[in-house]
Fold this protein.
Amino acid sequence: MGRGNSLYKTTLYPRSSEKHQFNNVVYLGIGGNIGDTKRLFDKLFWFLKRDRVVDIIETSPILKNPPFGYLDQSDFYNAVIKVSTFLTPQRLLNYILRVEKRFGRKRSFKDAPRTLDIDMIFYNDRVINSKSLMLPHPHWHKRDSVLIPLSMMKGDR
């Protein structure tokens, strides 16, 4: 694990379920560094669990790691959530943006501090390169914030 990284386990991170109801399997990267992020991750878990558009399959442990890009900010907490959904990639992206907003996300500048960031890392094995969505998520393979939580999951990635 990289310098400055710490792993945290809670009652919801990591967690796994053998069953899922939808055909599309998606890995979501979540992160934040404003407020009580671990508590917010718990709220997000229960919000997604109650929603009918995604079904949580597995969560990773939570990684605390230094910021990248804009460095004059607090460390981030990151995790990966594996879900299934019936939504198309674009509709899932729209859903994610609404969830971020509901959880207080404000977009002030690139790599700015944030309450909650949700990135679609993988959607099945789809490759999409559009103006609004790139899959797999660009640079996922270079980021400890994705690689370390993902490596701790039981899933098939």
Observations:
- The chain has a mean pLDDT of 90.
- Residues 22 and 85 are 5 Å apart (CA to CA).
- The first strand starts at residue 6 and ends at 8.
- The chain has three helices and nine strands.
